[in-house]
Amino acid sequence: MILELEGLTHRYGDELAVDDVSFGLEEGELVALLGPSGCGKTTIVQAIAGHVRPTAGRVRLRDRDVTDEPPEARRVGLVFQESTLYPHMTVNENVAYGLASRDIDARRREELVAEYLELVDLRDQRDAYPAELSGGQQRRVELARALAPQPDVLLLDEPLSALDRALCERLRDEIACIQDETGVTTLFVTHDQEEAMALADRLVVMDDGRISGDGPPRTLYESPPTPFVASFLGRSNALPATVVAREPLTVALGDREIQLCNSDRSPPPGTPVTCHIRPEDLSVRPPGAAGTDGTTPSLTGDVADVTDVGRRYDVTVRLETGDELVVEAVDDPPQTGERLAVDLPRDRIAVFDADGRKRERSVSVPETEG
Ligand code: ATP
């Protein structure tokens, strides 16, 4: 393991910013630390870099406990959201500065600077000053400066947040290429789930100082371990339901009873649960028309709103229970006020109990509709 956090906890006075966080990065992994503003991401980065001394827990780099060591004793490369380039130094000098504290002779230093400027495609700008560079070029200089000392781990804290969308996507791809080429173990911090999913091999999703999910992006997206992951990673409709039978797990959802799979974790009848289902997994049809396969359960409701968001329509359906569901429609959207049936594919419904524990997933059993 290149980086390992064990029970990392940090308080700022009474504020518990990071609460018992444990995860690790294997050699060469690119992991995104993803979560909304204020969930503790930067505090974790600062604890790894040595700028924050955690209240409790340990930080290990290459199996060495560095928790009590100063930043300069750790081989960590850092890139932040704001530029930290020295304005009075050239590109070359800025990158060389990152090597100043290392015991490297002048000739080797020159070679490394040239090598990493080449890597970020900025060799021709070596004598430019930061003010003469575009925002994207400045980011690339910072990447070269962080990488040239060949750190054990590269920490990128929201490095693209200050850039416009197109540049952000381009640089995101460049970072992926550079990471691939150098094989540097990387922790990429972001609040942007699309950015995280596009870039990372693995996501560590944070909610209010704690880890809410840890796994490959596609797995977390398709089988969210918590309600928070279900709604933060992509979009999710949350419908209140009640367990009516345990084997197989059957829930009352709106005016229907929907049978899910057997689970040894099924809660007892009467337990209130929340069913999460993604807008893209739902489809609508006139109530009388045949459903997709004749066995998919459906709920009926009235179209409350249709929003054209460019590549699709978001159709909000108000169910008879008063709950609302957002359904994605690619073309031919319904009219506001229209009565519709919403098909809910059973294998796309995730059920959580009141504590946010997952209680089931999907099925291929016959339906019991009420
Ligand atoms: P953001 O992306 O907005 O920076 P974050 O996920 O990186 O958010 P942190 O910056 O680590 O989160 O902050 C976690 C919590 O700790 C927040 O509630 C924040 O207000 C608080 N916090 C952060 N730094 C300090 C500090 N120096 N003093 C007091 N509280 C702090």
In summary, what is this structure?
The protein has eight helices and 20 strands. The chain is of the alpha+beta class and 370 residues long.
SSE ordering: EEEHEEEHHHEHEHEEHHEEEEEEEEEE
Query: Which cofactors or ions or other ligands sit in this model?
Result: adenosine-5'-triphosphate
Distance, first to last CA: 52 Å
CATH architecture of the largest domain: 3-Layer(aba) Sandwich
Structural class per helix/strand content? alpha+beta
Overview of the structural elements:
With 370 residues, the protein is α+β, with helices and mostly antiparallel strands. It has 2 domains: 3-228, P-loop containing nucleotide triphosphate hydrolases (Rossmann fold, 3-Layer(aba) Sandwich); 235-285 and 293-359, OB fold (Dihydrolipoamide Acetyltransferase, E2P), CATH 2.40.50. 22% of the residues lie in helices and 32% in strands. The protein contains 8 helices and 20 strands. A 6-stranded mixed sheet has the order 6-7-8-3-9-10, sandwiched between helices. Strands 13-12-11-14-20 form a 5-stranded antiparallel sheet. Helix 2 (91-97) packs parallel to helix 4. The longest helix has 18 residues, at 165-182. It is elongated and about 80 Å long. The termini are far apart. Mean pLDDT is 90; it is low at 361-370. The structure holds adenosine-5'-triphosphate. Adenosine-5'-triphosphate is lined by residues 12, 15, 17, 35, 37-43, 191.
